[in-house]
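Subgroup meeting minutes
Present: P.N., E.W., G.H.
Scribe: E.W.

1. P.N. recapped why we're keeping a running log of single-chain structure predictions: easier to compare across weeks, and new members can see raw inputs and outputs side by side.
2. G.H. added today's entry (297 aa).
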Amino acid sequence: MTHKQLKGLGIALVTPFTAEGEVDYAALRRLVTYQLDGGIDFLCILATTAETPCLTAEERQNIKSLVVETVKGRVPIIMGCGGNNTQQVVHTLQTDDFTGIDGILSVCPFYNKPSQEGLYQHFKTVAEATPLPVVLYNVPGRTGVNMTAETTLRLARNVENIVAVKEASGNFTQIDDIIKNKPAQFSVLSGDDGITFPLITLGATGVISVIGNALPHEFGRMVRLALAGDYQNALPIHHQFTELFKLLFVDGNPAGVKAMLNAMGLIENQLRLPLVPANITTFSKIADILRQLNIRL
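Output recorded in log:
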């Protein structure tokens, strides 16, 4: 996988659960097929939106195998592999089965709040432990630490298989600095659906999307129009989903998108503790907007 393949609509895939709380593999297969039929450009599995910390090692392996088997090489697959214990991440990269996986998404170390030098050394060490391309994931709202543009650019220039960053800081100045000064072989992906359109106008190459789980065709059309420079037709689609962007995160992610997928009849509205489903008010608002937009399977 090269940075050129990290373009367009990527999906931060959810993990469906049954009413009894088990992984719903049948629903997962249907959801992946729905994404492929919707024209997605790549998949991102077993990351934040997948509730990965609440999955067992066996479940993670089963999910990975099912997705690889269902995709059959039609789009690249990026898999989450990160943490705040550098040695453990390296061990995982060196010992787990990554057959069928085209790249790694690795989140900034959380909780222990490393310095910028610590972030640099962490990601350099992680990247050196795998031959796979590595996508950095900066999401300070979850990790408690922001990776600066300077650190991201240093990694992009110095580590050959660090090919992209998923930027979810919401800091336009920082993201624009990365886009402006990055090497040609490095991609910047939006980590926030709501600012994907403006980031593409600045030079981002795509998004790893939450809303795309439910609306791959519709949101993907906006992304592709924006990437083609057709802002006049992309902007109304962006505005069409403005309220949904907000609702999907009112009760946390992936509670909002799971409520949306449930309203569309795609999965059960189940999460694993400590996460809980979106409240009934949020669910009703999401369902109302879907009806207004005339979106159904």
